[in-house]
Specification:
The protein has a single domain (3-127), classed as HUPs (Rossmann fold, 3-Layer(aba) Sandwich), CATH 3.40.50.620. The chain has six helices and five strands; from the N terminus they run βαβαβαβαβαα. The chain has helices at residues 15-24, 47-65, 78-85, 97-113, 133-141, 152-161; strands at 3-8, 30-36, 68-74, 89-94, 118-123. A five-stranded parallel beta sheet has the order 3-2-1-4-5, sandwiched between helices. Helix 4 links the parallel strand 4 (89-94) and strand 5 (118-123).
């Protein structure tokens, strides 16, 4: 059984994330969505809230793809998380060239720690390439419409958090 790990903070999960999850699910038998605790980013949603939102979205995707998708919070090195969940593949989504430079460095470090775990990059579909959780939060905070970037359920959660 091939297990993949798709890590991120998912604060909040966006249509870009969902696109990558849907496509990654076709490449593996089991897909683990690693929700990073990452206190340094000052998330809008708690870890528990983010896990719950990702689980809700992934339930639909698992049914659609027929792939087992589980959500796993983590607060350690990505490579250690991959080992913990038995992943042989780390899936990373790319939006732009700027993402690649950072990801390239990360792959080098991860391979130095464990060269048995491969990293696979998936480009977001064109309509999702500009979506970033950080920008979704900023747009919502300033009263803009985030309907094109998140599901209706996530939109409601974000707007509620900002008291809108």
């Amino acid at each position: 059984m091939r297990t993949g790990l798709y890590p991120g903070t998912f604060d909040p999960i966006t249509l870009g994330h969902i696109d990558i999850i849907r496509r990654a699910a076709t490449l593996v038998d089991k897909l683990v969505i690693g929700v990073a605790i990452n206190r340094d980013k000052g998330p809008l949603f708690s870890l528990e809230e983010r896990v719950e939102m990702v689980e809700a979205e992934c339930t639909r995707l698992a049914e659609e793809t027929g792939t087992e998708i589980i959500v796993h919070p983590f607060d350690n090195l990505l490579i250690q998380c991959a080992r913990d969940v038995g992943a042989s593949v780390i899936v990373r989504g790319l939006r732009a060239v700027a993402d690649f430079e950072y990801e390239y460095q990360m792959v080098g470090m991860n391979r130095a720690m464990d060269d048995t775990i491969e990293t696979v990059f998936l480009m977001a579909e064109a309509q999702h390439q500009a979506i970033a959780s950080r920008l979704v939060k900023e747009i919502a905070r300033l009263g803009g419409d985030i309907s094109n970037f998140v599901t209706p359920e996530i939109k409601a959660a974000v707007l509620e958090r900002y008291g809108k």
